[in-house]
Amino acid sequence: MPYSSPSLAKLIEALRKLPGIGPKSAERIAFYILKSSPQESEALVSAIMEARWNIKACSICFFLSDSDPCPICQDKSRDQETICVVEDSRDVIAMERTGTYKGLYHVLGGALSPLDGIGPGDLRIGELIERVRQREIKEVILATNPTTAGDATALYIAQHLKTLGVKVTRIAHGLPMGTEIELADEVTLNLALQGRREM
Question: What is the CATH number of domain 71-198?
Fold first, then answer.
């Protein structure tokens, strides 16, 4: 659609690149931004830039945080013998919302997907195995998404961790197949954690 302003067209095109934002949503957001006060627009730009420059992956668990190590890894009151393995930082946030899991995390950065060219070397599986070797970890909970790629990733990790003598469990499939952990409600996630099984 032709726009009267190249700047408006550029803004809409930039917004369309965001996940889940189609042409109509991009247009609505662009016009909302243009109608907002200069202070609101500046606050949005400032928040984006601040997040972009300040947030980094924790060097231990790879959760996104302003500090390194992240607050979860620094918290000595958490169960230091249990690691919950997730695909993405958003999954950590979803798990934390349940208020029931009190262990540590490990963010893989995705799931195995040979068709997309994502193999074990593209994920933080080696770092997880090294973490388990170096620390006194008793249980690793595999909380990858209940998808084909998530299941394949969990199976791959379980096979490698079994040789280290650590208990490996998988969260129960109280989550519907094909969904993502970040989209699940707290009750469903809580039941999935409680119903985890050994692999």
Answer: 3.40.1360.10
